[in-house]
Amino acid sequence: MSDDVWLVVGLGNPGEKYAGHRHNVGYLVTDVLAERMNARFKRHKAGRADVVEGRFQPGGPRIVLARAHTYMNESGGPVKALCSFYKIEPDHVIAIHDELDIDFGTLRVKLGGGDNGHNGLRSMRSSLGTGDFYRVRAGIGRPPGRQEVADFVLSDYGKVEKKELEFQVIDAADAVECLVAEGLEKTQQRFNS
Q: What b/e string do you get for 72-100 counting C-beta neighbours within 10 Å, with b at 16 or more?
């Protein structure tokens, strides 16, 4: 059995009010991963987050799926608390998040980089003291017309997008599993379109 522990963080905002928003795609992906692990999220005693602990496959690394109870722009505190509790370094953290600069339905996986105006990533970078963690970036595209970015990310997916969303979420969950099992290069070859 592997002693590696990975923290997989679905970025989003807590509560039903935000559940279907573009900004909450990270929560949707962690729901799929938890279902695959046959587990339910439970409140964690050391952090302001819900977690699922388990493995993607028998003998594989231990996985901690997490969703903060804080809003997106304060995600870093709970992530840092969980890293401390489980003794996880940033190079074993995967953040799943929405990405404006990638077309809807497209995924990109990378290690490190800037926050590109994403408040969840900015908070994580600040709290962890580095941006050198993995990112599974689910494209949402840019807002139409003159719609403000904040209004766009905090709105539900459109009717056409909702039909395709399930496929994007499943692909993102597959990408997380591939990243843990096979590493960045193979994951990028398979999922970066």
A: beebbbbbbbbbeebebebebbbbbbbbb
97 in catalytic set? no
- Count the helices and strands in the chain (H runs, E runs): 6, 7
In this structure, what token pair is assigned to residue 77? 């505190």
Give the integer Cα–Cα distance in Å for 164 and 169: 9
Among 23, 44, 92, 118, the active-site one is 23
- pTM (predicted TM-score): 0.95
User: What's the length of the chain?
Assistant: 193
Answer yes or no: are the C-beta atoms of 97 and 135 closer than 8 Å: yes
Q: Which two tokens stand for residue 69?
A: 């109870």
Over residues 137-189, the pLDDT tens digits come to 999 999 988 999 999 999 999 999 999 999 999 999 999 999 999 999 999 99
